[in-house]
Amino acid sequence: MAVNPLFTVVKHANLLSAKSLATVCLVGTLKRKAMYIIEGSYTQKCCLMYDDKHRCVAEIRRKEANNGVALGEDVFHLVVQPTIDPTISMALVIILDQMFGPSKHFSM
Fold first, then answer.
1. Domain tally for the chain?
2. Residue 31 lies in a domain
3. Where are the alpha helices (DSSP H) in 1-108?
4. Residue 106 falls within a domain, yes or no?
């Protein structure tokens, strides 16, 4: 099976800029210009995805029950604006889960 990736996602590990989680760049471009920037906290399910003009194109937020009780860690809303393909935004959520999900936490 041939693999032809459309984009790369680079995880940010800069403690000075803890707000920025990852940058999404198109594959095959000479300049590594960011196509999307993801900011916030994935572990808290509170993230915003911005396009290259810093317009919010998608939002991840924790879902709560009607009585205000938080549901499980893996229950969230993905609010997608018409300017981004929903399949790309969901693919980015899956990638974020691989980067920052529960299996990435160390227990002491």
1. 1
2. yes
3. 86-100
4. no
Domain span at 32? 7-101
Per-residue tokens: 2? 């041939």
Q: Are 43 and 97 in contact (CB under 8 A)?
A: no
Output the six-digit token pair for 102. 């529960």
| Other beta carbons less than 10 A from residue 92's beta carbon | 22
62: which 2 tokens? Answer: 């924790």
Q: pTM higher than 0.85 for the full model?
A: no
**Does some domain include residue 1?**
no
Are the C-beta atoms of residues 78 and 43 closer than 8 Å to each other?
no
What is the chain's Cα-based Rg?
Answer: 15
| Structure tokens, 30 | 């000479």
Q: Summarize pLDDT for 32-50 with one digit per residue, the tens.
A: 788 999 999 888 888 999 9
Q: What is the CATH number of the domain that holds 97?
A: 2.40.160.200
